[in-house]
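Sequence in, structure out. First:
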Amino acid sequence: MNAARTRGARIGIDATYDRATSEADVYDPAVLEKQPQPERYPTGSSMTHGGVYGQAEAELVHGLRAHAGVRQALFHLDIPKRSVDEDSSSPAFTNTMVDVVFNAGVRWEFAPGVAWIANAGRGVRSPNVQDFAALGPRAGNRFQIPNPDVGPEHTLSIDTGLKTLIDRISAEVAIFYLAYDDAIALAPAARDGSPTTLDGEQYEWSENASRVEYYGVEGEFDVPLARYAGISGRLLAMIGTQYNEQRTGLPRRRPIEHLRRRRRCASGPSPSLGCASRRPRTAGSPRTGSTTRRTWKTIGSPRTAPPAM
């Protein structure tokens, strides 16, 4: 969609297929050899994700533009059976999830070269092979086991601010709120009624047991000085809090010192907009949103977490 047009729209469909292979070994200095270990993920596990999306943009009145998008996302995981020994076995299972994400925003140019922007959106990230099927020892005398009942994570993002473009000098500043619901965390689990392995390691598995909230401000500027030179800068300041359910064994509330980066994937309206990790993105529009806060993709993302703006 061209920002100069009065209105525009696009629709699309996308799909992505990923297949995992896994192997593990431990180097034994006593014999100077590697000793094979059970695979952490079942080789042959696959994840398919795709969706149908639509996005539209229009000038409502002179200087005031609005955009909105929606995406119907589908995720399918196929985890094969794994059988090595009593502690390194898990049954085969499949899981199909369907979810909806959206974003909307406005841009009001109330003075030449100066505009107010506001955006809101909902994103989704499907659990991946690691969340569903990781199996094996972890640091801290823990042992992770698969959980076929993990559900998607969701994000809600809101931002508002100002953008300017005057004589090739551009700048923007925005405040934002970002919340992750159903965040996946490791929580104590039991296997065959026992909370520990025969070696005394605590069983854990991935579970939707946390919520994370961020408040912050971000900005950037770009000042050309000559044909091939210029000055640019970016600012991001935020405060975050993670809320954990009591069963996780984690503090009920604790500060977060960095933007969560996970193997994430969210669903958004445009193929150019969030996933599998990288920085998740939020909802927004390449023309009316802010630049960081990259939560998962929202509408048009093949992989669907916060979005590029």
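Second:
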Amino acid sequence: MFTYFLFFTLFFMCIISLSFFKWDILSPNVVILAVYVIGAFFLLIQKEKWDANIGSVTYTIIVAALIEYTLIGAVLTLRHKARLSRAGSGSSSDITENRLGNKHELVVDKKIAIMIILIELIVTFKFFHDIKNGSSAIGSFASITQMISLYRNAQSTGTLVNGLSSFSKVGYVFMTAIAYIYIYILINNIFFDKFVVIFRRNSILYLVPIFLFCMCSLLSGGRNPILKLIMAAIVINYYFLVKNTNFNFNKKIKIIFKLFFILAVVLILFSQLRALVGRTSDYAFVDYISKYIGAPIELFDLFMKQSAYGANSSNIVWGQETFVSLWRFMGRILDSDNLSNLLVSKNWLVVNGFQLGNVYTPFREYCNDFGILGIFILTAIHSFVYNSMYLKIFKSYKKISLSNEIIWVIFYAYISDGIFYFSIDDRFFQFTLSPNTLFFILIVIILIHTKGFLYFRRIP
């Protein structure tokens, strides 16, 4: 019964949130509720196969945590509006006119762009060599798909002997930063002149590094970096829509339909890539997607039914699952193998012969590390961080330099997976709070502010 209650409650909350936030469809509060509605929908589809019956405790925790998330967002939004009103800021239409009169094509110096491609080709070759060596140390393989599968499985189980070299790791973060900068550049240029990407020869110089980044991501068995880049592209495109057009209700409705179309394409792509990255599942499309989108809610329910609702006393460090990346980093600094090789061990569950996996929504990590109170504390922090950043970037009309604007938008787009994935797994505390994120943003800041790297060409 609570399975149906959960879906309809979340759906009702999502509609209320859309109304309160004036159909701001990429507001963190709206996105969080929307992804949970989608997750609950897939859970309903698979209810009979999984024998799913959400308990009252799970229902109460999910609904209460999401209400808390939205209320914090609402309070921050109201405070932001009051602050703008007191400051006497101009209306959004005034800002629109100012922005539309300030159109720039972003261009990377051609010599630098070619140099970046050459560097990334070297990194890609080294990356492939490391993956091949790592897989060879585990077993034999007859194809790239088998090589990727061996490497990915060993990495996830902690049995990988030869991993990526420091050169490949640093190079991959560099490739990530370049991919996000170039995505921003392409979207900016397309937005102000739809034909600029087609007819400008240097556009290919932006597309090649993005392709190389995606190729290296697939080589390591990961689809998430590519999905994350797609999410970032959606956020960046939405930013330009909000800042540069009369974003009325009709346009927002059109965007919702476009997002549903993009979601369908992404899910199909996600399913089709499973063989390429060495995942041998033969589930039908809906069953396979449900495993990733709907199953985490069911797994969290099973966890709550079996747990004592308190923090796990067997953790070797405080916040072991929630802050796993930070603890691994500390392990490397302290030369501690126990910390640097820290694994998040979650049971892989099979229900009625169907593999649900081992991803339990973010609430499982929070509860396992800090108890039920931890769920609400960490959810509140998550809401505060994302809503504050969103309001600062999307809703602030303070004039800042184009360079700083680019940096802020790219950074928010980079961490936006934290809201898109919130019904599936925690991304913010586990992965965003890591040295890689700091390294990523430092590269972006250095490149954007490097004289001669990026210049603006006025579009008439």
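Remark: The CA atoms of residues 77 and 391 lie 7 Å apart.
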